[in-house]
TrEMBL record:
Gene Ontology molecular function: ubiquitin binding
Glycoprotein keyword on record: no
Gene3D superfamilies according to UniProt: YVTN repeat-like/Quinoprotein amine dehydrogenase (2.130.10.10)
PROSITE patterns: WD_REPEATS_1, WD_REPEATS_2, WD_REPEATS_REGION
This protein's UniProt keywords: Repeat, WD repeat
UniProt biased composition (Polar residues): 355-377, 638-651, 990-1003
Biological source species: Trichophyton interdigitale (strain MR816)
Record's keyword annotation contains Repeat: yes
Protein name, UniProt field: Uncharacterized protein
SMART domains: WD40
Ranges occupied by WD repeats: 19-53, 84-115, 127-169, 185-215, 216-257
Region described as Disordered: 351-377, 599-620, 638-657, 675-757, 976-1026
Annotated GO biological process: double-strand break repair via homologous recombination
Amino acid sequence: MARKSTQRVSYVLSPPDAPGGHRLGVNGLAVDTISSTLYSAGRDGVICAWDLNLNLRTRNDLHDFTQNNTSSRSSTATSFRRQVQAHTHWINDIILTQNNSTLVSASSDTTVRAWRPAADDHAPAVIGKHTDYVKCLATPQPDADWVASGSLDHKIYLWDINGGGERLKIDVSEYDKTPKGSVYALSAKGSILASGGPDSIVRIWDSKTGKLITKFVGHTDNVRSILLNRDADTILTASSDQTVKVWSMAAGRCMHTLTMHNDSVWSLYSDHPQLSVFYSSDRSGLVAKTDTRNAPDIDQGICVAALQENDGVFKVVAAGGHIWTATPKSSIHRWSDVDVTAEIEASAPSPLYRHSSSVASPTPSDDNKNDPLSSNQKIPASSILILSNAATFPNPMHREADVVSLSVSSLRAPTDILLDEGITLATPLQSLPQETIEGQHGMIKHITLNDRKRALTQDTAGDVVLWDLLKCVPIKFFGKRHLDDVASEVNTTETIANWCTLHTRTGRLSVILEQNRCFDGEIYVDQADLPDTDTNSYREDQRINFGKWILRYLFDGIVKEEVRRDEVYRQALKLKYEQKGECDYDVLDNIALPTVAIPSSPETPIPPSSPRMKGAGATRSAMAPGMSIGIGTPNMTSPFPELHNSSNGPFTNDGCVGKDPTGSFDYFTNAMKRPSTDAADSTAKSRSSDEQPPPSAPISGPLEPEKEERSKKGTTLFGKKFQMTFPKKSKTSTETKPIAEEKTEESDKSSEKERPFDDNFRGVIDRIHADYDAYSAANPCKDIETLITPTPENEAPVLNIPPHIGILIQEENPDSAVAADLYRGTVGTVRQDIDIFEKAAPAWLADLLLRNIVPFKEIPKIAFSLKPYQDSLPEVVKPDMTAPNNSSRLNANRMLRAKKILAYVAERIDPQNAETPSEDALKPEEYLELYCQNTLIPMDMTLATIRTHLWRTGNDMVLVYKANGRLKIPVPVEDGEAEDKKAGVDLASAETTGADQRSQVNGKHTDTDSTGAMLAQSLPESDVAS
């Protein structure tokens, strides 16, 4: 079965005052010679525009070279113009089209985008999409209206630049059935399209029909760059096999193999119609310039080592006597171009040179020598590169500055020179650039801390910063330090479920929230760093869900706008019937209003609640797991009542989360035996999935617990196992059966009237509006109460998230290598984009923001055993003789704190004091202690933390409790077994009793955590309980 596409939410943390420029390495360059603008694109997904302030007019003849350079050197430095976050992944290539008015970019986010810099109010638009990284672009001429893109998905597409979509599709692997059909290089001229990739083959395609014309075989490694001349009869290719090859379309073969590079050749550039002058760059950082205009053969042209970068050169471009290079660094270098028509020095130490990958000697400080374009400077013979093994070294005595005249007598074979003087390594003309266009320092490493609300990042400069993932701001700067050293200083011993994924792929810290995990992480209020005035309004031991908290305020603008629109919609409905004159208020007051349930999604219904809106059936949202002591269980409260035990569930008939009127709840659940209601639960789950009612149909609510029966049991903390209670199956069947039959009788009619809703944010709003419409039609002119109930502040305290924080809605599709962007905006602009947002955002996000409903997910529990220290106290749970090894395992929510376990122990070992506590009674944590592996456990430590940092083994934990002598505890008695068998162990209720539970133990409703560092006190080795 194919996996469905899923939507996720991402937000991006970055400093608000970040300057312009790239954060990571630069992959693409393009020069607009008319406006003197340099465009750059890099691994940060950003496209930058730079004002060069240079005269870049094209040279018409060789004599203009020096004149252009002189005027260029008198200009001002390059200045930053603007930038745009075009992609959310690396940009691999850019190209100017439509007479330099449009810049097209190809990215690893699988999209091809077109940006028109003159249109300030428009972001880059998607004009094409692949299913894998897009590596290269090509266009046939400057005024063309289409662009070709090549990708790792083995496809070549021709896209309409004006947004017309796909014009042509070429499947490379369809012709050769090759597993290496990825496209790394493209070039186009006229109707000819050339492609290359890791299979080392150069393929020629007809761009009109998509048919393969021919292919050239000769390279032995990945083809990285391709150039076509104006007539499309000569092809220049560069490969990782360290060669540049010249191919003839007429001859159908390779004419020349150029070997001037000693490393993988990554980039080619030429603006000459016949490719007679071209630039090549390699992995070692060498940029070579080759001129074959006046040579009788290409092998006999001149090749000069123009410059040496410190890193590999991904892209090289040249214009107006300047060269720009892009490297893995965020900065861009501008170099002086080389006049290859200049005279070669006569005093050459050796007439044959190979490039050296070592660092070249610095450029002399003398201005004449520092500028390779100076009119009186000659080309050093040590900078000449031999083009191929069959090439000859140009004799300087027979070469003039403007014309190359090579005679056979003046040329010596390379083999003769080798015999005479051997090989000398070439020295590039330049090792220092004329100008550096500075970039910024992007994040490249990150660590999520144990508390799951903070993260450390390190940038390319080595600076370490501590970030708050909820407030979206930096907390502390540590300077240039080792990331792991800082992490060991600021990390805590907490163990909290991971609720988000982090990455620094584009030089910024991105936080990804996925539906199936973003609600897993929780934090106690007393650990949330809230102001003291705020913490007083929360219940003791209340937890806050990370996912609900951050999403509520990332989209605070959306919530406010939807509340406003909802009010307008309800008022308009009422006004419509008033204008029709259909209002009869005397009759309306006596109308019995029906209850309509709003499903949480098209697939799954939610329980109806006490209608806030008369007749509209507003749904009260389920609370988050353990959000408050009085309502939830440690598990995520399910919005699906039929999935829970109907006789013991927390819901009442009106859909509200209920609690025992006696205040007695269960703490622990025995893991060895399942309750007798499992079969009923299983049937309910099957019915929920297989016989699901339509979204508009009413669904059966949960049954009200037997309150009288439960009150007769007394104030006990014990669970189902030892109480030996039985579910009221007869009540379940009698209440649910008529509803199911009624649904079956009306299924045909309801299916005809059922309105389809989109499975997105807008679809949830449409369902709410449909309920408004149904209620108004039955009750014209009646006031309609809202169904929108956002998460309240007592569940999600106010977060002031900076408005510049980026927001993305992305879709993960099994057919695509990376997630596709459906919406991009910021916290400050998302409200303005609400119409676009509603179509892109998922339905689960709408349920959370508008109705405070989270998807149901069973929270994992931790198994452990409780034992008294040296049998000095009564047993909490008697061994189960029917269980393996006569053991009684307890299961608890991983967020259960140690003091809650001691509260359970106190009730079990001293039930009389627990049932009738006095006002001055000691709290359980004041006279009891809990140990794990001989280590005293702090009262605020959770089970997950105990297991991770103290127990540290795979089998079930054993926790030992003992008295500290502050309270006399009765000696164990034999007749306690009868009472034990009645006692229940229900871990699922451990976190939900809260203040009610403590009132049973000590008569107080307030408690103070025994927080702080883990105590070093240990039990003697010989005293450890077995």
